[in-house]
Amino acid sequence: MANLSGKVPTEFPLIQLLPNMLTITAICAGLSSIRAAYQTDFVAAVQLILLAAILDGIDGKIARLLGSDSRLGAELDSLADFLNFGVAPGLVLYFWVIEDMTSAAWLSVLIYAVCCVMRLARFNVGDKSETPVDKAFFIGVPAPAGALLVLLPMFVSFALADNPVVPGIVVCIHAVLVGLLMISRIPTWSFKKTRIQRRHVKFVLMGVAIIGAAVMLQPWTTLVAICLAYIGMVVWAFVHHVKKV
């Protein structure tokens, strides 16, 4: 019933807080990943960042489903994204392989984090001049995908020998390149905006099942393959955009 008195209701269903609860949980996961990396438990650190990415992917959808999306939730989600996908991955990489290098190595972490926060700020502002190339694309690599890509050297090392087999200088250059991809104008595929034909749904669901099984059986190798596939899609989107222009 409508509130005829015009007063703001002082009570509301507890389930309306579920999206914000998930966001807070994601923040705790991001902070815990930094702690785990400091304690040299790098597998747990990466797993916690992946958990934060999963929670980030569902909190907004649940908020829209429950009709509980709000400006507070949006700001909280943006702050969580910076922590989980900008700060945490950079510090995890720093503790993992490059903390013994010169101060120039720390600069790569700063560049990545600054690029991430600029990417998020640009997304929040919603610059009208940034018209997407296509409804299935948007500009620059999103922050969650950037976090996944910047951790690729760790995925490779875990898959091969469970120790840092990627040279520190390569990790530094890789982090800077991923940061630049986030603030670039390169069109990247948006899963949220992509539509598929009904007759292809069964193939998509089968693919998801196969990927899910692969993640459970060979998680690090599968994550390497996912990152390489995403890089391939970014390259394809860039070439597609250049041809259209």
Summary, kept brief:
This protein is mostly helical and 245 residues long.
Overall description:
- Helix content is 70%, strand content 2%.
- It is mostly helical and 245 residues long.
- It has a single domain (15-188, 197-244), classed as Up-down Bundle (Four Helix Bundle (Hemerythrin (Met), subunit A)), CATH 1.20.120.1760.
- The protein has a two-stranded antiparallel ribbon with strand order 1-2.
- α1 runs parallel beside α3 (71-98), α2 runs antiparallel to α3 (71-98) and α6 (152-160) runs antiparallel to α9 (219-244).
- The chain starts with 17 loop residues before the first helix and ends with a helix.
Strand and helix map with partners:
Layout: H1 18-38, H2 42-66, H3 71-98, H4 103-125, E1 137-139, H5 143-150, H6 152-160, H7 168-182, E2 187-189, H8 201-217, H9 219-244
Antiparallel strand pairs: 1-2
Helix pairs in contact: 1-2, 1-3, 2-3, 3-4, 3-5, 3-7, 4-7, 5-7, 6-9, 8-9
Features:
globular; 2 strands; 245 residues; Four Helix Bundle (Hemerythrin (Met), subunit A); 9 helices; mainly alpha; two-stranded antiparallel sheet; single chain
Supply the CATH class: Mainly Alpha
- Identify the overall geometry: globular
User: pLDDT average, as an integer?
Assistant: 81
CATH topology tier name: Four Helix Bundle (Hemerythrin (Met), subunit A)
Helix content: over 70%
- Sheet with most strands: 2 strands, antiparallel
Uncertain runs are: none
Order of helices and strands: HHHHEHHHEHH
Radius of gyration over all CA atoms, rounded: 20 Å
Q: How many discrete domains?
A: 1
Query: From the structure provided, what is the oligomeric state, counting identical versus distinct chains?
Result: single chain
Give the CA-CA distance, first to last residue: 54 Å
CATH architecture: Up-down Bundle
**How big a fraction of the residues is strand?**
under 5%
Structural class: mainly alpha
Q: Count up the helices.
A: 9
> What is the strand arrangement across the widest sheet?
1-2
Spell out the CATH superfamily: CDP-alcohol phosphotransferase transmembrane (TM) domain
Number of E strands? 2
